[in-house]
Write a structure and sequence with these properties.
about 280 residues, alpha+beta, Ribosomal Protein S5, domain 2, 2 domains, six-stranded mixed β-sheet, about 30% helix, binds 4-diphosphocytidyl-2-C-methyl-D-erythritol, binds adenosine-5'-triphosphate, transferase
Length: about 280
């Protein structure tokens, strides 16, 4: 019997990421910063559903607070894939948003990566993982990592990726009640931009830091307060440009206990590391 054509892809995961460390090692001529970072994928995130449209339109069918449909990275990802492939199909895209926005968890980038991977399958456009990662970089610096699909040591603006093999781990992620704009942190005069490069083998927590953390804590005391609270239980650090902070803990139980203690208006979640992107099998 013939396989029926795909018309719908239900509940495709868009996992969160943590930056286990983040060093700013330089600046490009266009103002973008050169980084070194370790990306870790988490088994917690948004979820997207894609339905085929015959008329070529790409629509978001759910509201995302503060993000107009046209600017949504999922809509932009769909249009970019159409342009790159010449595909005439369209899609309705529903987002079940769970990741706090502007949280340093890469939610927008992960939604975009999941869209590129899922529509490449739904539309049968057949782009390779490398081609999708290149397209994704036009949408956000973290998109190539999600398409790479596994923990990674990253350089450049985050697009030069090498696989990292890390032991499985449990994390507590805490969101302070504040939104930290990425651009403001990178623009800050006081940002350290000359951290010496390290080798992939040297990134144990003791020798690394997040260079964006001091700037974010200075301008947004809520971030510092979240680190201080979480540090009672385990060494805590900011992810990306904030606002979220995280700590590795010994077990799911320990994570659950800490989450239950988290005082409002901070919010906390437990999450486990994820070795492979759940949609990895749809690539290559
Ligand atoms: C901090 C990280 O989350 C680390 O994973 C990412 O590098 C941020 O990537 P992102 O959210 O995709 O950031 P974008 O939305 O592209 O950047 C927002 C703004 O931050 C500044 N920016 C961003 C990334 C970078 N490597 N250097 C920069 O200077 C730029 O002014 C840019 O206009
Ligand atoms: N689908 C989307 N989900 C979240 N944000 C989106 C989306 N589409 C566009 N955006 C825009 O992207 C911005 C950054 O969102 P995102 O959640 O990726 O930030 P972040 O978690 O701080 O990521 P990073 O770790 O890359 O700094 C949002 O403030 C929003 O304006």
């Amino acid at each position: 019997m013939d396989t029926p054509p795909l018309i719908r892809l239900e509940r495709c995961p868009a996992p969160a990421k943590l930056n286990l460390f983040l060093h700013v090692v330089g600046r490009r001529a266009d103002g973008y910063h050169l980084l070194q970072t370790a990306f870790r994928m988490l088994d917690w995130g948004d979820s997207l559903t894609f339905a085929l449209r015959a008329d070529g339109a790409v629509h978001r069918t759910t509201e995302v607070a503060g993000v107009p449909e046209k600017q949504d990275l999922v809509v932009r990802a769909g249009r970019l894939l159409q342009q790159a492939s010449g595909c005439r199909h369209g899609a309705d895209i529903a987002i079940d948003k769970r990741l706090p926005m502007g949280g340093g968890l890469g939610g927008g980038s992960s939604d975009a990566a999941t869209t590129l991977i899922a529509l490449n399958r739904l539309w049968g456009t057949g782009l390779s993982r490398a081609a999708l990662a290149k397209l994704g970089l036009q949408l956000g610096a973290d998109v190539p990592f999600f398409i790479f699909g596994r923990d990674a040591f990253a350089e450049g603006v985050g697009e030069e990726l090498q696989p990292l093999t890390l032991p499985p781990a449990w994390y507590v992620v805490v969101a302070p009640p504040v939104l930290v704009p990425t651009a403001e942190i990178f623009r800050a005069e006081e940002l350290t931009r000359d951290t010496g490069p390290i080798r992939i083998t040297d990134f144990a927590a003791s020798t690394t830091r997040n260079d964006l953390q001091a700037v974010a804590c200075n301008r947004y005391p809520e971030v510092g307060a979240a680190i201080e609270w979480l540090a009672q239980f385990a060494p805590a650090r900011m992810t990306g440009s904030g606002a979220c902070v995280f700590a590795e803990v010994g077990s799911e139980m320990e994570a659950k206990d800490i989450v239950e203690k988290c005082p409002a208006p901070m919010r906390a979640w437990k999450a486990k590391s994820l070795a492979r992107h759940p949609l990895s099998d749809w690539l290559d």
